[in-house]
Amino acid sequence: MRTVLGRPDFRLLFGALLASMAAESILLLALAIWVKDLTGSDGLAGATIFAIIAPMVLAPLVGWAVDRYPRRPFFVAANLATAALLTPLFTVSRAGDVWIIYVVAGLYGLSYLTLSAALAGLIRQLVPVELLADANGVLQTVRQGLRLVGPLAGAALYAAVGGWLLTGLAMTGFVTAAAVVALLRAPEATPADGGSRWTAELGAGLRHLAGEPALRRALLGYGLGSLVMGFTESLIFAYVDQGLRRDAAFVGVLVTVQGIGGLVGGLFSAALVRRAGEVGALATGVTLFGPAAVALAYPSIWLGFAALLLAGLSLPLITVGLNTLIQRRTPPGLLGRVVAAAEALVSGPQAISIGAGALLVGVLDYRVLFVLVGVVTTAAGVFLWRGRRLSAPPAPSVPRIPLQRRPAAGAEPEPQVAHPTR
Fold first, then answer.
1. Where is this region: Disordered (predicted)?
2. Three-state SS for 379?
3. What pLDDT is recorded for position 91?
4. Within 13 Å and on the Cβ side, how many CA atoms surround 317?
5. Are 238 and 45 in contact (CB under 8 A)?
6. Ranges 93-102, 200-209, 370-379, most confident
7. Of residues 285, 291, 315, the one with CA closest to residue 388
8. When comparing pLDDT for 4 and 418, which is higher?
């Protein structure tokens, strides 16, 4: 990690993302708690996350737009637009205003997809291929580390002053990110004109994912896990309410505990990618989510802390493995469309599962649903692990050392020739 942070251009990008990720960490959970407080419904609180993920159906259009513009100015504009779309939250004051939170959550989901696609291209533009796993690992370490303070601070601030102050803080974070990235002086690649019809360009990301064996396996396995992983967005509120008998704000404590596991996972994610390959890291993360979900079927606060630590450990392994695989196996000019398409293929099943979880939590015991999540994610992890050789890490290169011949008796020694480093 020190190597990639030693690059001045990446350090500047890192500082910008620190501001935007801090804004995200205090905002997302607060939106769900806000809905829970206004309506008293676990299902409606979980549906806030569904509203964020629902815009993923527009992924092909978003990716096409991202690939048509230079990465840096597009990223700056997208951050400013994200700050602006949060302003309607200042008008929310009663249960009848919940629809405003859902609309903002949907717009934020569209913005998140756009920023992710632009960021992947910007990182690929700034960082050499051999340091991509380290760059993604650094960002995930910080993102997960913010869970140590962000959600808990957000829940505490919400309990003290409501959602308006959190909205203002989040807007400040996105504006700061835009200002810092605007200072970046990286060479901009001119977006290539595909020369094809726009309908063909929209589907280029999906075609690339389907045609590349490692990416295809990764998306199939992770998509299978996502079919049930979204259940937890609603189940965690039922776990706190019905199992632990605590109020909704305690979810912030659990997410903070999850952040500790995420911090550890982020620190080791790049090393795991180098050892097991990108698909191997992804498989490890998805598999670890299984026992974590099963453990949450029993309402014990200490067992719950252990389960959330394990779940937190799994998340950066999943993200770093998948992101690095996409960045390494995709041409730069196609990266926006591929990232957006991958987000849609993963988040589509996840959105369905969040919606299904919001409905099922009202009719089935949450403990049964947690066991179901554990069984399916373990199966998905095994499927991915069996395909880990599709992205096996390359063998370390060994420098070639020329053989030295002994000079014949009485002969002059041969001059030594310096071989250039390859």
1. 393-422
2. helix
3. 86
4. 27
5. no
6. 370-379
7. 285
8. 4
